[in-house]
Protein 1
Amino acid sequence: MPVETLIDTQGRVVRDLRISVTDRCNLRCVYCMPAEGMPWLPKDDLLTYEELTRFARVCLGLGVTGIRLTGGEPTVRADLPALVRMLSGLKPGLDLSITTNGLKLVAMAEPLRAAGLTRVNVSLDTLDPKRFHQIARRDRFHEVIAGLEAARRVGFTPIKINTVLMRGFNEDEAVPLARWAREEGYELRFIEWMPLDYQHGWSREKLVPAEEILAQIHAAFPLEPARVADPSAPAALYRYLDGRGRVGVIASVTRPFCGHCDRIRLTADGQIRTCLFSLEEYDFRKAMRGGASDEEIVELLRAAVWRKEPGHLINSPYFKQPERGMSAIGG
Ligand code: SAM
């Protein structure tokens, strides 16, 4: 373990930095955003690529080993490969990944790979184009599939698929998605719907719990828990007994894994959040634009991480949904 690390009061060490590069998105998924009327961040508040790279460099000096770019939809930020090139240049072999809806991958997979991106997660909630239109409020299913194929063609591996299941929309798709992912060689992960939507429409009844998803998949394709190298990874992984890959569940609501959390998040406007559900943020935009030295950034970061929440309170009567939604935090 490097001498310089970011550690909290629970003894958890930060290894994973999620950077949101924009709060904007080219889809309007029903569990995330309203159809219209999103309050976008002012453009001048977005950290520049130079500011993001500086912040990432400081974090890499403090024991961070992986960076994931997210949003909003990260690929809608102008010239994303330029940022990837700047970040990958910080450290040879850096684990540098992206979470994307895949719409722009047909054009961008190659330049992102050439710039040093190492891994891709693509979000897809249904295999039915009409349903995709209903969930994402845009008729763009085939572009996601083409984007996935482009990512595979340029050599990204493994390609992970993120799926959110919701009652009344796509709760019957666990097995079809699992079958498709097995056939295509993608690693599928189901994320439980979390109370982070702008509309505040979340309810426990509408989320499909991991246990139900796993039971359905197990009945079709028998599973066993997989041994994992990284206990702080959010997904609980299962392997198919026939050897055809793995499937994961990110059961943030029904099986919280906060005790192993090694993540912090930088929002597109330069706020550090130590938990998806934080009610407090730390303003690094102000610090950096106010002339803070690297040493001062390090001290602010240490103080923020020290105060990292022991766990989220979704299952407690004291839970309060944060003001920012998932798209402005960076999922
Ligand atoms: N636009 C990119 C994408 O679609 O992957 C990156 C950002 S998106 C916020 C990241 C992931 O969060 C997606 O897989 C999305 O389905 C998921 N997501 C969005 N809102 C969510 C919520 N309230 N609960 C659980 N997952 C959510």
Protein 2
Amino acid sequence: MRSTIRTMADTLTITDNRTGKQYELPITDGTIRAMDLRQIKTGSDDFGLITYDPAFMNTASCRSRITYIDGDKGVLLYRGYPIEQLAEHSTYLETAYLILFGELPSPKQLEVWTWEITMHTMVHENIKKFMEGFTYDAHPMGVFVSTVGALSTFYPDGKQIFDEHSRLRQIHRLIAKVPTIAAYAYRHSIGRPYVYPDNDLSFPGNFLNMLFKMTEIKFGVNPVLERALDILFILHADHEQNCSTSAMRGIGSSHVDPYSALAGAAAALYGPLHGGANEAVLRMLKEIGSVQNIPGFIKGVKAGEGRLMGFGHRVYKSYDPRAKVIKRIAEQVFEVTGRNPLLDIALELERIALQDDYFVTRKLYPNVDFYSGLIYQAMGFPVTMFPVLVAIPRTAGWIAQWEEMLLDPEQNITRTRQIYTGPKRRPYVPTAKRG
Ligand code: CMC
């Protein structure tokens, strides 16, 4: 089929050059509806024209009111609020409330929300037993994914996804329990006893307590590290329709409970192309070893021998706004923990890359992962915990996107189309007759 395409003010006109037939497709929000293409038939037995979009590079799968990104300008907004302002003034719990419910909480709402989250931090003792079954060196993210999925067996009421009160209960449970599960996964991986939540502490303070408390009666939280972790949580709370969020929506569209859907989303985050890049940055910095080796490394990257990890982004074609905030808090963290020696290499790499034509013309700037690993490492986290540290705050985004999907009357169970390229219909060949 050949066709010509023309756009008018708010419509797209497609002419089928074989039949001369014209189709007028409405353009709304810079988008045409893929289903409007169905009326165009490529043959008499064809059910209609479809689009081919591997990796969904140019397909909007939903309307969303949660997160806005302008990749060219380096803008990230949660419910309209710039990420920089939230990182400056808000806490993770306030931000999670904003992402989930659409508005910043009033003082009373914040008090109730904080109380609910604090009261749900404990996990069933059987979850501890279940986690003890993992091998001593189990990757904390693998443990996290499995345990979050297992929560569905502890909370069968989570299946009541169209009951608003039930949904809210699962939201409280998920936001409150993911740090506990993450901390237990970490303690398990290093063979230390699990630490129960301390409800006197803040959300990040309690997380640090569950990770690092030893024999002391009360864990002393360092306020600089507590705030730095809270800011990192704010920066990672949502990032619109990325791989794991799409997984959350896609799995949730079958109307499974949120624990099962969230386990799937966390599994998507586990992959090195998504939640694992900060680990790759650390490995790269270690390999470079010293500032003198940077020119040689950059030369190799430009020759296609490898990538400058922590640089470049599918959406951001300018400085990732999250990276700017992280770079600033890195200095504060290092004042407490001591300077991470890899920071000098990172700073020099950034300086050189931002002046180099290769990176400038390709619009490659530092992304969120360039400095976050350095902070995590300085705070005492092993690299295996890095994706878990993203999964904790991203839980707010995943659930908000899941709920938005559930309540959107336009949504249905997710199912994409395919172009079949396999063999045509053929008769079965018995075993004895196969060559
Ligand atoms: N180092 C060197 N060259 C690069 C890099 C890099 N980090 N990123 C892209 N390029 C080059 C690439 O080789 C290509 O060059 P050419 O046009 O000559 O072939 C050009 O830039 C465009 O690359 P692309 O792969 O088409 O760009 P993309 O938008 O599809 O890729 C990316 C985005 C994040 C996969 C890529 O920039 C990358 O691999 N970065 C390093 C890994 C990394 O830091 N990932 C974390 C992403 S942020 C986490 C999150 O938000 O989930």
Protein 3
Amino acid sequence: MKLFIDSGDIGEIREAVAMGAIDGVTTNPTLLAKAGKPTRKAIAEICEAIDGPVSAEVLATTYEAILEEGRALSRIHPNVVVKVPLVVDGLKAVRTLSREHVRTNVTLCFSPTQALLAAKAGATYVSPFIGRLDDLAHEGMELIEQLVNIWNNYDFVTEILVASVRHPVHVVQAALLGAHAATVPFEVIPRLLRHPLTDIGLARFLQDAQDIPQE
Ligand code: E4P
């Protein structure tokens, strides 16, 4: 499973890339607003920091405007994947962009029928938001299970990119189900790594090493 970082913060992205953990980046307007830089500058900087897909979201919501903004984003850097909302004009734009060989990530997916339409339109990725479903007392991971089952029946090229991940169990479940990718906030990454037995074991090894005779 590919692991992406869901962040607009160049410091976080560089740190995650240095750990060797990360295959790509997803951003959204909320994350870029937090980062506090103009979008083009932020996306260009992120693309230089990682050799992998970097999702940059359009703000437009009508077909022509999404196309124009999407094409402009894709010209920033070859790593850019144009993130498009799951609305009718978004799907139309995804269809056109995919014919122009511009990669797309269809975002704000909350149902299997929405995901199917994204795949039919030729999206490179579809992003089901599991944490936001959990927030409404729906089991977000059930959506991923449904999508993986549907995908197993067909030959869609669209990758299932598990988004709105909140904690390590989401990552484990996504991997067990065979999702193609998951995008995780920076603060989840150390929690994927940390285990008290690793820390205790390391402390004991270093302590015991004091008794190794010196040459
Ligand atoms: C995905 O591409 C989105 O940026 C993200 O995962 C949204 O997550 P949130 O629900 O934590 O905002």
